């Protein structure tokens, strides 16, 4: 199986989604050689990002999905593999910039891989923007569950601990990569306040759950908007909702 997935889904679910969401195909400031990597969270796969990926393509981006076995291995191991792949992408002359749209644990893996691959230093011209959906930047509430003798089988939960000396809490902030964070208000996995990252460009909270966030039309709209403008809510909308009479409230705080 390829480490990157480049695919489109045509089914009833996607048809229903598309009937309510209209994506402006191309924006003047987006080149077709800008790549967006989507990285899923714990116990999720490429299917969880299909709506995001389809919308990215329609918006004019090149989309690749990066998969990993979230139940096996540590975050360090996954980040090391992603780092190698980022290095290859950064050296590709057909790609002008590399962006990310990540969910939950995938956001932490992306952060670690960006540092390890030297994307922000050695390959700084390729450094784009990253949207993190419900990222456990200050740890996850799931790590409060005592695992006892089974803890050794889930190193990723230890790495995502809310303790000050945990792996995720010791990761340095990003320097050149512009960061947009979207939190879920009804999140029982990652507290909204734990999603913040030092140096973030913009932050917003949507009234949805941890898992539903990645397919929420508002979150996808915000993601594309941030990749284009570095703002989650302030820039002109790139996705219209013609059949929705009233939008749900959004809490946003730009840096």
Folded structure, characterized:
It is a single chain. The N terminus is likely disordered. It is built from 7 helices and 10 strands. The chain is of the alpha/beta class and 255 residues long. 27% of the residues lie in helices and 20% in strands. It is globular, with a radius of gyration of 17 Å. The strands form 2 sheets. The chain has an 8-stranded mixed beta sheet, sandwiched between helices.
Instruction: Quickly give the structural class.
Output: alpha/beta
Shape: globular
Q: Strand order across the biggest sheet?
A: 1-4-3-5-6-7-8-10
Kindly report the average pLDDT value.
Answer: 81
N- and C-termini, Cα separation: 40 Å
| SSE topology string | EHEEHEHEHEHHEEHEE
What proportion of the residues is helical, as a percent range? 25-40%
Q: Are there runs of 5+ residues with pLDDT below 50, and where?
A: 1-30, 235-247
Percent in strands: 15-25%
């Amino acid at each position: 199986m390829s480490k990157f997935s480049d695919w489109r889904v045509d089914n009833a679910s996607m048809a229903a989604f598309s009937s309510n969401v209209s994506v402006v195909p191309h924006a003047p400031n987006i080149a077709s050689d800008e790549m967006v990597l989507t990285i899923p969270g714990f116990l999720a796969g490429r299917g969880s990002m299909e709506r995001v990926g389809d919308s990215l393509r329609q918006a004019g981006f090149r989309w690749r999905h990066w998969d990993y076995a979230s139940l096996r291995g540590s975050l360090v191991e996954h980040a090391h593999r992603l780092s190698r792949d980022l290095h290859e992408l950064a050296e590709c002359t057909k790609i002008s910039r590399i962006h990310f749209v990540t969910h939950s644990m995938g956001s932490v893996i992306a952060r670690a891989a960006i540092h390890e691959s030297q994307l922000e230093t050695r390959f700084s011209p390729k450094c784009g923007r990253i949207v993190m959906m419900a990222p456990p930047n200050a740890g996850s509430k799931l790590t409060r569950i005592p695992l006892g003798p089974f803890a050794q089988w889930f190193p990723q939960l230890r790495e995502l601990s809310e303790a000050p000396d945990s792996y995720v809490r010791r990761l340095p902030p990003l320097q050149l990569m512009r960061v947009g964070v979207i939190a879920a208000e009804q999140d029982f996995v990652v507290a909204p306040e734990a999603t913040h990252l030092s140096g973030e460009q913009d932050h917003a909270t949507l009234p949805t759950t941890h898992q539903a966030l990645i397919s929420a039309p508002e979150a996808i709209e915000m993601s594309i908007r941030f990749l284009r403008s570095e703002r989650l809510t302030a820039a002109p909308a790139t996705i219209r909702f013609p059949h929705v009479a009233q939008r749900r409230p959004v809490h946003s705080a730009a840096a």
